[in-house]
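Intended use. Records like the one below are meant for learning the mapping from a protein sequence to its folded structure. Do not use them to infer anything beyond what is encoded.
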Amino acid sequence: MSGKPEPTRPLSEDSTLILAYQDGLRALQERKFERAKGLFQKVIAGGPRELADRAKVHLNTCVQHIEPVAKVFQSVEEHYDYAVSLINVGDYMSARDHLETILKQAPKADYAWYGMAVLDCLNNHFEDSLRELGEAIRLSPANRFQARSDSDFNNLADDPRFTELLYPENESALRYPRE
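Structure written out for the chain above:
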């Protein structure tokens, strides 16, 4: 180690790569996977490490959509993780297809019901979301606590049915006050 600071890239180069990353995200959201792939590869090749790491994750998504590889999952949980990744990139239709497939294979998979509840809440299908979240909680009460801090349910935060679902102890206290 020479003690000399490493030369930094000119700001304009970093700016160009940041713009390429942003364009890649936009293309990914528009489902233009080939274009996004090229932009993310450019960022990976010359971008700062943190930006390149993020680009690699998105590049993986692009490759999964471009290559006609049969999606064979080792487990239902792995399949669920893939469905969540689709939700995270805004591909709600594909995510719904995968979650429905999971629920056909494993109807008692509480996490799949939870995923459907999140998906429906993000799409403003509140009745469905509440029903699915109720099922997720019925199958595993721990989902109640997870949903309390899950920002994906912000659209339901003011709905009294949501509050009743997450805080049943408050509801019973109101019905049966102590003397």
